[in-house]
TrEMBL record:
Gene3D superfamilies: NADP-dependent oxidoreductase domain (3.20.20.100). The keyword Ribonucleoprotein does not apply. InterPro entries: AKR (IPR020471), AKR_Detox_Biosynth (IPR050523), NAD(P)_OxRdtase_dom_sf (IPR036812), NADP_OxRdtase_dom (IPR023210). Residues 19-318 form the NADP-dependent oxidoreductase domain. This is Aryl-alcohol dehydrogenase-like predicted oxidoreductase.
Amino acid sequence: MANIEYRTLGRSGLVVSTIGLGCNNFGRTGTATETQEGTDAVIGAAIDAGVTLFDTADIYGAERGLSESLMGKALAGKRDRIVLATKFGMDMAGTNGPDWGARGSRRYIRLAVEASLRRLRTDWIDLYQLHRPDGVTPIEETLDALDDLIAEGKIRYIGHSNLDGWQIAEAEFTARLHGHPKFISAQNEYSLLVRDAEREVLPAVNAYGLGFLPFFPLYNGLFTGKFSRDGGPADSRIMSIRKHLLDDAPWDRIEEYRAFCDERGVSMLAATFAWLLAQPGLTSVIAGATKPEQIVANADAATSWTPTADEVARISEIFATTD
């Protein structure tokens, strides 16, 4: 088993592995984890590797709720060995009844959490995350509803996803003003090629002591080292549904990065994990997997190289934005 590091999530007592398992592939058509058997294999491999943070959402899967349902069965007898994170707030297409777009409301949150608990076959959710603000519900109402769920023991901690910097600040000060539990984590897109979070989100995260959880940290797999200008694995997400990411990638920079890695005898995957985990406030890199061997590769890569401050800066420089 890889010697995975564990960190507290923001200013909380929730400890998670620095490599998390993104569960959006569970129940996704055309993957090995489309089935219960495939999901069981990946979850078992992750637990064996020391991965504890499992991140899903009620919307994940070929049909709404399927990822959670598959996970609920796979985690039977193993629930207390992981930190289970899920999300609410995306369009469930009527699965939770009509919502009129107010998916951060007290009414909707109550429906959503009970549905997730049933699908996950558990009595509690460790980290319950607002997937996206609805633009309708005041954040105070959302926090008040989540406060009640914490008091009832149905959820332990709360986080959010896809908030802008000013929204993170608003949530922080609203919680302080009304005496509600604070969000402990933020989940936004962040990778070597998508650095927008550095402008406002990461400064807000660090100012208020949240743990940062980047999604698409490997840019849909581009930084696994398996891709080149000519293509990559035929069964990968990029080749099957997001070929434009390959076609539009800045290959001159990526090849410079590959040379940087080769000079140090480190894989691109390991270097990318190391760069991410060196960023202030970043707690865990949530990476998806559809096969057990991918879990093992991620866990091994995350513990195989510790860069110097100069090497971290050099990687940042290779992919520095020009605007």
